[in-house]
Structure formats: C-alpha cells, structure tokens
Write a structure and sequence with these properties.
The chain is an alpha/beta fold. It has helices spanning 41-47, 52-64, 85-96, 112-117, 172-196, 201-208, 223-228, 238-249, and strands spanning 22-24, 27-36, 70-80, 101-110, 122-125, 130-132, 220-222, 234-235, 263-264. It has a single domain (22-264), classed as Alpha-Beta Complex (2-enoyl-CoA Hydratase, Chain A, domain 1). The longest helix has 25 residues, at 172-196.
Length: 271
C-alpha cells in the first residue's frame, strides 16, 4: 500500500527529483506533512513538507489523471501560514467535485491542516491522532527601551499610509490591528471549514468550543472526541482505512493474463 509517513525521507535522485504523491490500484495518496508554506520549494524538496502551491498543482494533475479513481490526503501537520491556504483548500474542494477525496489524519491535522482536511468528503482519524486548533494566530513582539529586558531599542518606519503594516503590540492601536487581522483570517477559515463539513460557521464554532462560550475554540481533539463533535467522520486504524479505501476504488482485475493494474510510486506495508 502507498505510505506517506512522518519521518520518511523525500524520495529523490537529487534535489530536482520530487514525489508529491503515489498511485496504487487507482488510489492516489498525497502526503500533507510538515509546516505548511505558500511555495517554499526548498522545504518541499529537502524536507518533504507540503506547500500550498504544490497541493494546488497536485489537485489539478490528479483531476485529469485517468488512472486515479480516488484521492487520499494523509495529514501529518501542525498547520502553517495563512497566506495561500484558502487557495489550496479551494483546489481540494474543486478536486472533490470531480473525484472522491478522503482525508486520513495520521497523526495530526491542526490549524491550517484542518482547514485543508475539512474539504474532503470524509475525515478519518487514526487511533492516537488529533485534529482541530480551528482559528488563526500570530507571533509578534515589541522592542523595549534600554534597561527593560533586552536593552535594545529599535526604530521602524513605514510609508505614510501603511501604519498597519507593522502593528506595535505594546500599544492599544497595535493590538486592535493584530486582532482585526486575526479575525479576518479566522472568518475565512470558519467559512471554508463549515462548507466542507456541510454546516454553518456558527455551528462549527459551537462544535469547536470546549465550553458553551464559542470564544473558547482553537483546541485539539482526539479521534473519538472529534467524531463526537462532528469535526471528523470516523476513527480507524491506518491499515483498516487503506483496506477500505482500496477495496472501494480498485478497478476490476484485467482479464488479460499476466497484466496488472497500473501502479506508480512506492508500495509498502501499512503500520
């Protein structure tokens, strides 16, 4: 069976060779692993991490590949950048209009990873895996005066009409701008994830909250809890998942003696 696994090296014959997916018995397996970025070819080629551009290109390729009956997105990611995520999620949704797309969380689909997974027709969570962290966050800082910590004072300037370019989190105005930007990103996330899961953004926020207050979202959930909250569809081992998916989409054996169904990529045992 195809195996995109966390920790496996990228299959390459040099820095130019890259395998974004494998095809086995009519099912394409696309690993979605690592910290997700817009288009970092360095991280994709040398670390094996997915990029939004790579996923978008892969979706287009698989949509037109007659050898592919269905697609599995196998997730091993803590999330990543907001920039580019909406486009990749849209590409997955568009692919799902042409061919069935299944998501397997093994072992993590958090934040932007869940944004992508939510566009599949079904989300399966492997035992011990987690998903969620539905929301947006940013890490920033403010420089301090000498003698107040680092002892370093820096000055930054922006053009006359770009005050929001580098908001200062030490000021009320800066915090307001940061929260505004996060709110916009979260709203896009909620709309896309809710559409993928067949619900409303309001219902999604309720499902994702750990209390009755919808502001208490952003948590990670294990498989059983994710299914209970309707954020995923089932909890299933990786072996059982691929047995089910390959059984559903493998084409009928060819009657010509000695011929085998088309297969590309690595074939290894599930774990």
């Amino acid at each position: 069976m195809p195996q995109p696994m966390a920790g496996d090296p990228v299959q390459m014959a040099g820095p130019q060779a890259l395998e974004r997916f494998t095809i086995e018995r009519g099912v394409a397996v696309v690993p979605v692993r690592g910290v997700l970025t817009a288009n970092s070819m360095t991280l994709e080629r040398w670390m094996g991490w997915a990029t939004y551009q790579g996923l978008t290109e892969t979706c287009a390729e698989l949509a037109s590949d007659e050898a592919v009956a269905a697609i599995v997105l196998e997730f091993d990611t803590p999330g990543g950048m907001v920039l580019g995520c909406a486009g990749a999620a849209a590409a997955i949704a568009e692919l799902g209009q042409i061919k069935p797309v299944h998501a397997l969380v093994h072992p993590l689909a958090a934040s932007a990873g869940y944004w992508l997974a939510s566009q599949a027709r079904e989300i399966t969570v492997a035992p011990g895996a987690s998903l969620g962290s539905i929301g947006a966050g940013v890490m920033t800082g403010a420089y301090v005066q000498p003698g107040q910590g680092s002892g370093l004072q820096l000055f930054e300037f922006t053009s006359p009409h770009a005050r929001a370019k580098w908001p200062d989190p030490s000021t009320e105005e800066g915090r307001t701008e940061i929260l505004r930007s996060l709110g916009e990103a979260e709203a896009r996330f909620h709309v896309a994830a809710a559409a993928g899961r067949g619900t409303t953004p309001e219902d999604l926020r309720s499902r994702a909250s750990v209390t009755e207050d919808v502001r208490d979202g952003g948590a990670l959930f294990d498989g059983a809890e994710a299914v209970k909250r309707a954020l995923a569809d089932r909890e299933e081992s990786r072996m059982a998942f691929y047995t089910r998916i390959l059984g559903a989409y493998t084409p009928a054996p060819l009657k010509t003696a000695g011929r085998r169904p088309r297969s590309r990529g690595r074939t290894i045992n599930p774990s």
